[in-house]
Design a protein that fits this description.
With 177 residues, this protein is mainly alpha-helical. It has one domain. The chain has helices at 34-57, 60-80, 87-110, 115-134, 150-166, and strands spanning 2-6, 9-13. A hairpin with a 2-residue loop joins β1 and β2. α1 packs antiparallel against α2 (60-80), α1 (34-57) packs parallel to α5 and α4 (115-134) runs antiparallel to α5. The longest helix is centred in the N-terminal third of the chain and has 24 residues, at 34-57. It is globular.
Amino acid sequence: MHGKRVSGVAVRRQLSCFGDSDCERIVGTELAQPVLAVTSLGYVAAGVAVLCWAVRVRAPLAGAAGVALVAVGAGSFAYHGPQPSWAERAHDWPIVALALVYFAGLAWSARRRRWSTWATAAGVFALALAAYAAGRTGSPLCRPDSLWQYHGAWHVLSAAAAGWAARAMAPSPQHLQ
């Protein structure tokens, strides 16, 4: 908190940084939240894996998911890492794009009855949501100075779930290999 005096009254304002609700303490280094910045790269890894697979099996919707995952990872890294002025938009808009691709993928694959692939991804995503809740600032499990960050587990688990769900967007079941 920084304060100043206006007409003899102390006025306090809170400095707000990106990621201040994500438990990990924001430090004054190149990476504001080092653990969360590094775990954000899980989205990039999942996205590259999905892209490679999607090109091989000719699955354009899965390819779009791969591109969106890479963008989510890059935006999340900017948000939790160096925090440039545009980081919040770079973090949020790829998430919106990813959600749209996955809604389209769910609608497309529902007609092909790919429920088991989605169910596996949903199970992993449920674990990711639990980690997300545990990793909020104010959570009883929040340890701001720990190398274990539940929000980091959210990054890794949700990236894995998204990578697995992309498999449901294959043109035919044989392509799931």
